[in-house]
Amino acid sequence: MKWTQTLIPTLREAPADAEILSHKLLLRAGLIRKVAGGVYTFLPLGLRALRKVEQIIREEMDRAGAIEVLMPALQPKELWEQSGRAETARDVLFKVKDSSNREWFLSPTAEEVITTTAANEINSYRQLPKNFYQISVKFRDEIRPRFGLMRAKEFIMKDAYSFDTADDGAMASYKKMYDAYKRIFDRCGVQNFPVEADTGVIGGNYSHEFMVPADTGENDVVFCEACGYAANVEKATSGIPKTATREIGAAVEKFATPGVVTIEALTKAPYSVPANRQIKTLIYIADSKPVIILIRGDDQLNEAKLAGVIGTPIFRAATAEEIFAALGAHPGSLGAVGVKNISIFTDERLRGANDMTTGANEDGFHFKNVSIERDIVVSKWADLRTVTAGEPCAKCGKALKIRRAIEVGHVFKLGTKYSEKLNATFLDADGSRKPCVMGCYGIGVTRTLQAIIEQCNDKDGIVWPLSTAPYQVCITPLSVAPDNACMKLAEKIYAELAARGIEVILDDRDERPGVKFKDADLVGFPIRISIGEKSLAKGEVEIKPRSGAVVLTKSEEAVEKVAALVGNGLQKV
Question: Which helix (H) or strand (E) is 522 found in, with range?
């Protein structure tokens, strides 16, 4: 390809609404252009890089035995109602109506469609296992789209769905996808690591996310350098000890705390109750009913963990009015002592705790001498707290660390959640009908593209890995007159590299050398060949890897040198 024959509208400055570096570089390098918030057009170079990522994914999915299909983006509302996700996923669903006033959803994912397909087409255990995948456009009604392709309303995703006869087969399918994901992200040229993860609205009981470390990532990852434990903060646990047990003292005693409505205020004189001896009481509304959550005063609630415990992702913090109606007091004076007819979910760190202080459900008053198991009727114990850096690892006891990362892939073991609801069953060898055991596996293709840029860049622009670069080589003649020796040699090298299957672009613009060099670095081509009259007079050209030094090379050896660099992954030859 020649530069003047395509469209590469580079920018010296990024638009003001581009918040993170990768978003800025996507725009400045002319890879994408914004149509509306969360909606982008891929320009020629951006599309080439995107197709590279897609091809890597296809090759590894095919290698793992998955079968490519293509499912509709327009999906019947009734399927989502049958699975129950018309309600649980309602906040992200794009809804449209046709001319008959029938309601449809624009697909954010395809569990319902593929499970219905399996229900119609798979009848016998002899047809299993199967794993179907697609790479297609998806839609999510992001309230606040931001960070370019990271949180968009329209995006491209690879989603796959496995069907097995039993749990052990489902785990084998899961392992194949887990291994394939590691190969995919390694081939994309980014540092990556899997972490234990929350299953969210997808469901299931076992999942891992694949993360790309990045300071601007939207996920906090808890990890242990000593033993390798890693989990999304939404799932992470630690070996932090439970609340120290004290001797059960006298009965609960109410005392006045006028104006005290925070944990911190109660730690001050004259009360001087440490936060770790207080019970924090939170009220949420789930399924239109209030629920009480108890955690230790120095801990923070993890809402993702709470969703798993209460069994629905649809919940919210109660309003002051709803809290008063439920407990007869306002926030700051709440507790669970003596409360009946309201479910009480309590963090495991409080199990066995006594000599605690909590609100008395009367404004301006608290209780002391509280014993959790004596004075509070706990509906369910669960891990509800958020892990913090420095806590001991539950596996080895070493200090945990936290870092930011970008989620690029997610694998789930779904079990029979969808197959039971959508009747995806099979006849087993013994003649009995059983539900398929499912898994689902997603990769954010557009998100992966941006994650590569977020990790692979320097002060001058993008530093593409060879595997995902829009072009591997950029030839930059400093004079482009057709009869000029520089241009003639550029054309010759261009043709010879292309003949070898090396992806090459020839910068045939009549621009100053500085402009060309800056654009080549901004776009991030892995190798640049510069041809100027001074070096050519010596029979040489300049070869410069994007992150390396200029190497003067005999012009007749340039093609071999570049081919060797490409073949060896830019390692010096």
Answer: helix 513-523
pLDDT tens per residue across span 455-476: 999 999 999 999 999 999 999 9
SS3 call for 442: strand
Element (H, E) at 26: helix 21-28
Residue 266, judged by CB atoms within 10 A of its CB (0-12, 13-18, 19+), counts as buried
Going across the sheet that includes 74-76, the strands are 74-76, 103-106, 94-97
Whether 303 contacts 232, CB under 8 Å = no
- Interacting residues of 144 by C-beta distance below 8 A, sequence separation 6+: 151
Tokens 């399927």 belong to residue: 79
**CA distance linking residue 206 with residue 130, whole number of Å:** 19
pLDDT of residue 287: 87
pLDDT in tens, 382-425: 999 999 999 999 999 999 999 999 999 999 999 999 999 999 99
Residue with the two structure tokens 């649809």: 314
Tokens 């994007």 correspond to what residue? 546
Domains parsed from the chain with CATH numbers:
17-237+402-454 (3.30.930.10), 253-382 (3.90.960.10), 471-567 (3.40.50.800)
Question: Whose structure tokens read 């399924």?
Answer: 287
* Whole-number Å distance between alpha carbons of 438 and 501: 41
Q: What tokens does 238 get?
A: 């630690």
**Which pTM was predicted?**
0.89
Radius of gyration from C-alpha coordinates of the chain: 29
Q: What is the pLDDT at residue 200?
A: 59
Q: Which letter does DSSP use for residue 179 in this model?
A: H
| Confidence band, pLDDT 50/70/90 cuts, at residue 125 | very high
Lowest-pLDDT choice from 22-31, 239-248, 457-466, 564-573: 564-573
H or E stretch covering 530:
strand 527-531
Structure tokens belonging to residue 292: 């009480």
DSSP strand E in 44-153: where? Answer: 67-68, 74-76, 94-97, 103-106, 130-139
